[in-house]
Amino acid sequence: MMQLYNIFVFGFTCPYENNENNPNGLYANPDDCSTFYQCSNGEPYLLSCPDDLQWNQERLVCDYPENVGCRIPY
């Protein structure tokens, strides 16, 4: 089973609304391809993808790097 780790976040603000007029959702981390934010009731939580996977914003899952095409320098 895939385990995700959540970390309380400073510096990321959940959007007021997304495409579904709902602030809850999953959002790519613009600074790190292996993590993403989950917004719940306006509070952001930083989650990590396991085992060298990266966040795929189109599919909303952790995925293999070749499927993601991350351009953030390490």
Automatic annotation (TrEMBL):
<dbReference type="InterPro" id="IPR036508">
    <property type="entry name" value="Chitin-bd_dom_sf"/>
</dbReference>
<dbReference type="Pfam" id="PF01607">
    <property type="entry name" value="CBM_14"/>
</dbReference>
<dbReference type="InterPro" id="IPR051940">
    <property type="entry name" value="Chitin_bind-dev_reg"/>
</dbReference>
<keyword id="KW-1015">Disulfide bond</keyword>
<keyword id="KW-0147">Chitin-binding</keyword>
<protein>
    <submittedName>
        <fullName>Chondroitin proteoglycan 2-like isoform X2</fullName>
    </submittedName>
</protein>
<feature type="domain" description="Chitin-binding type-2">
    <location>
        <begin position="11"/>
        <end position="72"/>
    </location>
</feature>
<keyword id="KW-0325">Glycoprotein</keyword>
<dbReference type="InterPro" id="IPR002557">
    <property type="entry name" value="Chitin-bd_dom"/>
</dbReference>
<dbReference type="GO" id="GO:0005576">
    <property type="term" value="C:extracellular region"/>
</dbReference>
<dbReference type="GO" id="GO:0008061">
    <property type="term" value="F:chitin binding"/>
</dbReference>
<keyword id="KW-0677">Repeat</keyword>
<keyword id="KW-0732">Signal</keyword>
